[in-house]
Design goal:
elongated; signal; disordered C terminus; two-stranded antiparallel sheet; Expansin-like EG45 domain-containing protein; 6-stranded mixed β-barrel; 5 helices; RlpA-like_DPBB; RlpA-like_sf
Length: 176
Amino acid sequence: MAFFLCFFFFLLASSSASACDRCSHQSKAAYFSKASALSSGACGYDSLALGLSGGHLAAGVPSLFKSGAGCGACYQLRCKNPTLCKKEGARVVLTDLNPNNQTEFVLSSRAFVAMAQDGKGQQILKLGIVDIEYKRVAREFKNQNLAVRVEESSKKTRLLSNQIFVSRGTNRDSRC
């Protein structure tokens, strides 16, 4: 019985330590110069993505993308360069897969600049890649709106493929 209890507590401790979804992590982030590259990404948001979180979009590595289950997840990113970056950083919404293993995130240029202090946006863009600290954050769903999009694949017989999007406020005001 004692062995079983020790084994159970070991499993409990190891699973909670490795499955920390809201813990802070250290990594790097780069940016795309065109947000449309992220909006037409693997999550399939298309034009709806540009209105999510004020255009603060991100592509994440497979461990964040989670085979599509990570789509729409919100992250708080903070650049670690204190001379260029704000302490609070920026919130982004995951809209695409980043297969590149050099950075965990590729951001829209709007999101990348949002991490910078006022007047230092061009300086942070010149860096191209920055060290970041990030964590997953909850979305707020006050005044919920619902959007339904029927996919092109629905033209095939006996197949109805659609996506349901929930956002706060209008799409332009939707924030993480």
